[in-house]
Design goal:
Layout lengths: L2 E3 L2 E4 L3 H12 L4 E4 L4 H5 L6 E3 H7 L8 H4 L1 E3 L1 E6 L2 E6 H5 L3 E3 L2 H15 L3 E2 L3 E6 L7 E5 L5 E5 L2 E4 L6 H4 L7 E17 L7 E5 L5 E5 L4 E8 L10 H12 L12 E15 L2 E2 L2 E3 L5 E2 L7 H22 L3 H28 L7 H15 L2 H12 L5
Parallel strand pairs: 1-12, 2-3, 2-13, 3-9, 6-15, 13-20
Antiparallel strand pairs: 4-8, 5-8, 6-7, 10-11, 11-12, 14-17, 14-18, 15-16, 16-17, 18-21, 19-20
Helix pairs in contact: 1-6, 1-9, 9-10
The protein binds P-hydroxybenzoic acid (PHB).
P-hydroxybenzoic acid binds next to strand 16.
């Protein structure tokens, strides 16, 4: 039975957990990382594909050897289409920043390889994960390894980076945490297809038929989504029906046409907003989706997770190396400020771009007024560009 002693036990080997492990390792702090998924399963998890410049800078730190520049693509803006009229937002001229199209699973592959090169203990496919003594200064994590061995990790701190259904979060007594939650009356129907890109940048489209997002993956694979009822069965949608619907949602007087091709993946993604506060209890700290989920409309999920870790890593280093726990004590306050900005932006983008089947005609017109107020104003466009490209870390 492996009995491990470490500085930080990290539950969750997704991008948040592994980025944290990397930053700690770079500062000479040991960690043990565990995850109940296999490395292949995590690598196959499709999530949003947009990285803020600050997230890219984190992937550029020595030791990661990320392919973000060779396999990713810089995007200097997005196109917001309203009833078929294009409103390009040029990020460099508005806010002096860009974003990168680099799917989350690629970031994971980079980080998992970096972790493996350090030779530090990392256990995928564990079962029965349990946190103990998080109220004390000697917490521990137990799990069963893939080979059926009991694993016991004692640490000074535990970080729960274990996703939206976080078992770590559940180990915080209910009276000590508050959950803020919002559900939306629609979902996204997402596809992967074999086709060339339809446009240089992502298109976020609002139309009477509902929202559509024309995203990309590579020169010959594209990702697209359209707003659908959460109860939609993907099997009811033939390729022809999907292309007709997507095309109808982006059609306009400019004659814009999507480049189509065989659809290789169909999925319906319900979405919601949730935040747990505080993001800490005793010796346990939450990072990424375990503390907050955002609707995908603003592509903030992974960026928020990296932003948490950008604050948490130096705070853990100061506490462990310099016995200065002040930044750690401020972690939740610092991180949640950015979380709520991202919640607001994701909510606002969602509300402005989707048609709400439960709303009255007044609300539909009002949200159009909100969108055109922003798009018709230089200040408004700059605001959207600032939110999309992201706020400074920490
Ligand atoms: C994606 O490419 O999957 C994607 C991009 C931008 C979003 C959401 C999803 O806002």
């Amino acid at each position: 039975m492996p009995d491990l002693h470490t500085d930080v036990a990290i539950v969750g080997a997704g991008p948040a957990g592994l980025m944290l492990a990397h930053l700690l390792h770079a500062a000479g702090i040991d960690s043990v990382v565990i995850d109940n998924r296999s490395r292949d399963d995590i690598a196959a998890t499709h999530r949003a594909g947009i990285l803020e410049a600050a997230s890219v800078r984190m992937l550029e730190t020595p030791g990661i050897d990320s392919r973000v520049h060779s396999a990713g693509h810089r995007h200097d803006g997005i196109d917001v289409r309203v009833d078929g009229i294009s409103h390009p937002l040029d990020f460099p001229s508005l806010v002096g920043e860009s974003v990168w199209l680099y799917p989350q699973n690629e970031a994971f592959v980079d980080l998992a390889a970096a972790r493996a090169r350090t030779g530090s203990p990392t256990f995928y496919s564990v079962t029965d994960t349990r946190l103990a003594d998080i109220d004390s200064t000697s917490p521990s994590v137990r799990a069963v390894t893939e080979d059926g061995e009991q694993l016991s990790i004692s640490a000074r701190y535990v970080v729960g980076a274990d996703g939206s259904r976080s078992p770590s979060r559940a180990s915080i007594p209910e009276a000590s945490r508050q959950r803020f939650f919002h559900e939306y009356p629609f979902a996204w129907f997402g596809i992967l297809c074999q086709a060339p890109p339809s446009h240089e940048v992502l298109i976020y489209s609002r139309s009477d038929r509902g929202f559509a997002l024309i995203s990309q993956r590579s020169a010959d694979v594209q990702r697209m989504y359209f707003q659908a009822d959460p109860g939609t069965d993907p099997d009811d949608w033939s390729d022809d029906r999907i292309w007709t619907e997507l095309q109808a949602r982006v059609a306009g007087p400019d004659g814009f046409e999507l480049k189509t091709g065989p659809i290789t993946d169909k999925v319906v993604l319900p979405f919601r907003s949730a935040v747990t506060e505080p993001m800490q209890h005793g010796s346990l700290f939450l990072a990424g989706d375990s503390a907050h989920t955002v609707p995908p409309t603003g592509a903030k999920g992974l960026n928020l997770a990296f932003a948490d870790v950008a604050v948490l890593a130096p705070a853990l280093v100061a506490a462990l190396r310099d016995s200065d726990a002040e930044a750690l004590a401020r972690y939740s306050t610092t991180a949640t400020k950015r979380v709520w900005k991202a919640q607001n932006f994701s909510y606002q983008m969602t509300r402005m771009l989707h048609t709400d089947p439960t709303a009255d005609a007044f609300e539909t017109k009002r949200s159009l007024g909100e969108l055109t107020s922003l798009l018709d104003s230089e200040h408004g466009r700059r605001y959207l560009a600032e939110c999309y490209t992201g706020w400074p870390h920490g």
